[in-house]
Each structure stands twice: as structure tokens, then as C-alpha cells.
Design a protein that fits this description.
The chain contains twelve helices and 18 strands. It is an alpha+beta fold. A hairpin with a 4-residue loop joins strand 7 and strand 8. Helix 7 packs antiparallel against helix 9. It is elongated.
Length: 393
């Protein structure tokens, strides 16, 4: 469960990690701007990267300018998420930026600290552009990191002698936070050395394990309660949750209408492999009701980003004729215009095909953009066709 930057920094303060002076502001709390020393930085509280390029990190020299920019920022969308709160922080004179994080290596099955003397950009970019600058230090599970170990890490970052003690303390605190609160990730990017020779966590990222939060009542005291994995849901994810449909929005334009979760994941991977962009992950579960199937279709066909639907049903516990009935009923009731390219095989396949063929005969215009293939057409070919249609080829 991701925390917003201002929430992560609240935890940093509790653990003695220095952060810039700041306050969180929403549309109801402009009065706190009277307490702020200017100039300031205004930072939208969203989870997606690229805030700077999107105009969601800005500076202000006085309160009037800050209010104007905050009003422009609040309510603005970054990806699929609206900005509901901003963080106002003192403007910092930066001399040097570093990267530091504590996380888990899923292959080594060990926790580790990752550092680089090139901070300020995503770790993937650092790995690509400066792979030898990324340093990893592994520890045994549940083992506390010791000061001499973090001093060695600070030394590897080519820090001056007078800076090594302070950075060592920050590394210990960040790792302790990671261990003690059962985090998946604690990250400072960048950790900056300021013009006044101070170290500050200019940005903060904390990813909590939602399943372990019952062990940490102190988080509830801070206002952190279990919520969606990335902190907030899109409108379509909220609809899906009410309907009991596992669903995650993505940034693409091909709606995925699969059977089970395993095939849903495979479909997302195959679409990306062949050059398409999936718009979602979805799981129908075993033997879904016609109502549930119609809701699943509606999530895709009502999404303005979706240009084409890829669907597949392998009838096992579920039945192809039930799936076909749900598709037909949705089309008759809603008259969708978007193309739907699908494949159907397995339990009650022939009955399902008769239902769809009859619907095409009775309502040819409504079904002219809907194609349903049988088991003898490879699923890869169905996906490739959907990609071509989504791209307008």
C-alpha cells in the first residue's frame, strides 16, 4: 500500500530522517499558507511519476502566487488520478543528489539497501544510464543494520569525512523503518546535500504491506488505514470493486475481457508483446453470472480510452453459452460502437456459437463490429488482429 509523499515524510520524521519543512494543503486548508516561509515548492500528491513534466511541481515566491498555483493544480488529473492535495515545502538550495532505498530482493530472498551517487531520477533510468553507479548491500532477514555497515555504504558513495556520520544515521533510520513497519519499500530519491551542508530527504516513498498493518496500531493513530494497493482507485476500479470484479486500470487502449485471472495476466502480456497497449487487467472468476459478465463488458465499452476489446472465453467450470448470452444481451441493450474481437472454446461452445450467429442474423448492424473465433484460430492471431484494429490499421 503506497503512501503519499506527505504521509511518507511524516513517518520519516518519526524515525529521525530529516525532511524539508512543509505542510499539506487541500481545498479546505488554505489558511495554513500563513504559516509558511517563502519561497516554496508546490508538489502535487499523486503516485504516478513525471510530476515535473506534467507541471505538478512548481515554485512560488509569495503566498498570492502559491494560492494561484495551488488552485490551478487541485482537481487536475495526472494519468487517471485527480490531484486532491498538495505538499508545500521550503525551497532548497541543492548541491548534490543521491539515491537510497531499502527493499526486498525477490530472487535472493533477502532485504537490501540500494544506493547511488546519482539521485533525482527513477532507479530504472539510473540502472540504464549508469549501471555501475548502483550499489547493493544485502542483509539477513530480520537482522538489524549496524552503524559500521552504513558508514561503509557512505564511504562507497565518495562522501566527505564530515558527511559520513550523518548519512550513516539516515541509512540506519531508513532501514529500521523498513523492517519495523513491515514495508515493501522505503526510498529517498533524492537525498540531497544542501547549500547549508545539510542532508534532507527531498522526496519520500513508502510502500507498506497491507496484510501486516494489523501488527502496527501506531499507523492507525497516524491516520493510515488499509486501502487500495496504490492508495486510490479509478472510477472504473470502484465500480468493479462494488460488483466483486477483480479489475485494475492500465494506460492502454485495448480492453481485456478474459476468463480467469491466469489468462487475464497472459492476455495483458501477449498484447504488450505484440506491440499493443492493454487498458486493464480483469478476472471473471469461475462460472460468472450473466449480470457480472455484462458489468465487465460495460467497464470496457464505457471507458473512453478503450478503442477495441479483446475477449476470450475457455469454457471449463463456466459455460460458453452463458458468456454468449451475456455478450448478446449487452449489445442489444447498449448498442456499442467499439469493435470486439473474441475467441471462444470449450464447454458448451457449439451452443454459444449458435446464440451469437442467431444474434448476428437478427441484428446485423449491431453485430457488424463483433467477431468471435473458434478454437482453430490461435489466440495470438486474435490478439494481433485486435491490435491492428486499435491502431486503425
Amino acid at each position: 500500500m503506497r503512501l503519499y509523499e506527505h504521509e511518507a515524510k511524516a513517518l520519516f520524521r518519526r524515525y529521525g530522517i530529516p525532511v524539508p519543512k512543509g505542510v499539506a494543503v487541500d481545498k479546505h486548508s488554505f489558511n495554513v499558507l500563513a504559516q509558511v516561509a517563502y519561497p516554496v515548492m508546490i508538489k502535487a500528491q499523486v503516485f504516478l511519476g513525471g510530476r515535473g513534466q506534467a507541471g505538478l511541481i512548481q515554485s512560488a515566491h509569495d503566498r498570492n502566487e502559491a494560492e494561484q498555483k495551488i488552485r490551478q493544480m487541485l482537481g487536475k488529473y495526472h494519468g487517471q488520478f485527480p490531484v486532491r492535495k498538495v505538499l508545500i515545502e521550503e525551497k532548497i538550495d541543492i548541491k548534490k543528489e543521491f539515491y537510497v532505498a531499502a527493499t526486498i530482493d525477490r530472487f535472493q530472498h533477502k532485504p537490501l539497501i540500494i544506493v547511488s551517487e546519482h539521485g533525482g531520477m527513477e532507479i530504472e533510468e539510473i540502472a540504464k544510464d549508469k549501471p555501475f553507479s548502483i550499489l547493493k548491500y544485502y542483509f539477513n532477514p530480520f537482522e538489524k543494520v549496524l552503524p559500521f555497515q552504513t558508514r561503509n555504504i557512505a564511504y562507497a558513495l565518495n562522501l566527505r569525512q564530515q558527511h559520513m556520520q550523518r548519512t550513516s544515521e539516515i541509512f540506519v533510520a531508513l532501514y529500521n523503518l523498513f523492517l519495523e513497519l513491515d514495508c515493501k519499500l522505503t526510498e529517498i530519491n533524492p537525498l540531497v546535500l544542501t547549500g547549508k551542508d545539510r542532508f534532507l530527504a527531498l522526496d519520500a516513498k513508502v510502500d507498506l504491506d497491507e496484510d501486516a498493518m494489523f501488527r502496527h496500531p501506531e499507523l492507525k493513530d497516524l491516520g493510515f488505514v488499509a486501502r487500495h494497493e496504490i492508495g486510490e482507485m479509478t472510477d472504473y476500479e470502484k465500480i468493479a470493486k462494488v460488483a466483486g470484479i477483480p479489475y485494475v486500470d492500465m494506460d492502454g487502449d485495448i480492453g481485456v475481457f478474459p476468463g480467469g485471472a491466469g489468462f487475464g495476466i497472459a492476455a495483458v502480456d501477449l498484447i504488450a508483446h505484440y506491440g499493443g497497449k492493454p487498458a486493464n487487467f480483469m478476472d471473471s472468476g469461475g462460472a460468472p453470472t450473466p449480470e457480472k459478465l455484462r458489468t465487465m463488458l460495460g467497464l470496457l465499452l464505457e471507458n473512453p480510452r478503450v478503442k477495441a476489446i479483446f475477449g476470450a472465453r475457455f469454457g471449463g467450470i463456466s459455460r460458453c453459452d452463458d458468456w454468449a448470452k451475456a455478450v448478446v444481451q449487452y449489445v442489444l441493450e447498449n448498442e456499442p460502437k467499439k469493435p470486439m474481437i473474441m475467441r471462444m472454446a470449450g464447454n458448451m461452445e457449439e451452443e454459444g456459437r449458435r446464440i451469437l450467429e442467431q444474434a448476428k442474423q437478427d441484428h446485423p448492424q449491431l453485430f457488424e463490429n463483433i467477431r468471435i473465433y473458434a478454437y482453430d484460430t490461435p489466440i495470438e492471431e486474435v490478439i494481433k488482429e485486435t491490435i491492428r484494429i486499435a491502431k486503425g490499421i
